[in-house]
Amino acid sequence: MLAVPLAAHTAISAELLEGKIVLDASNYYPSRDGRIAELDEDKTTTSELIHRHFLGMRLVKAFNNILAHHIPLLARPAGAPDRTALPIAGDDADAKKAAAALIGQLGFDTVDAGPLAQSWRIEPETTAYTRLYLADPATPFEQVMQAPARPVSAAELHRALEAVERLHVADRTF
Ligand SMILES: NC(=O)c1ccc[n+]([C@@H]2O[C@H](COP(=O)([O-])OP(=O)(O)OC[C@H]3O[C@@H](n4cnc5c(N)ncnc54)[C@H](OP(=O)(O)O)[C@@H]3O)[C@@H](O)[C@H]2O)c1
């Protein structure tokens, strides 16, 4: 699991995760990470940028679109009627399969959001991002880190992913 501020990933040795399947929770927040021209110009995605740094890493983008405190609130056993779905994105089909199995054991269904090049669909401020799981989608920004969650089925997540339009990252202010 890679869960460090985006700007910190280059501080990790490029060889450290060679051959490993890594769940990448990273997001780009210019206010925290500084402006990164390639991302601002929509030339690449956050996970592609990270993938490029690490040699032979089998990266699956996962858990980036859900607030940390919502994970224990929404985890349910397989088959539960209110089981929530999370998106995964990646270029390695076997790694995605392994990631889906692990995430399934942790309490969530998964929906394939496509290859890393399409992972902008689950980046900040899209319709498939963290607000989707808020019990009250109008929760003010300052309150989201404590806000209650609601279950999101695989069918609803599919619909949210289909509705996503690509945002211009340069316009993002936080
Ligand atoms: N928090 C959320 O709800 C959430 C949800 C979805 C996605 N994300 C994304 O997940 C990533 C991590 O978020 P977070 O909230 O877990 O961040 P965080 O609490 O600020 O940082 C996580 C860890 O990163 C380590 N770290 C910081 N700078 C480092 C460096 N230069 N080298 C190595 N390790 C470093 C820190 O380790 P030490 O304590 O040892 O310094 C810290 O414990 C971000 O990209 C974030 O946008 C977060």
Strand and helix order: EHHHEHEHEH
Compute the number of helices.
6
Strand order of the largest sheet: 1-2-3-4
> In the CATH hierarchy, what is the class?
Alpha Beta
Global structural class: alpha/beta
Bound molecules: NADP nicotinamide-adenine-dinucleotide phosphate
Overall pLDDT confidence: 97
Structural features, described:
- It is a single chain.
- It contains six helices and four strands; from the N terminus they run βαααβαβαβα.
- The chain has 174 residues and is an alpha/beta fold.
- The protein has one domain: 3-Layer(aba) Sandwich (Rossmann fold).
- It is globular and about 40 Å long.
- The protein binds NADP nicotinamide-adenine-dinucleotide phosphate.
- Residues 3-6, 8, 11, 25-27, 29, 64, 67-68 line the site of NADP nicotinamide-adenine-dinucleotide phosphate.
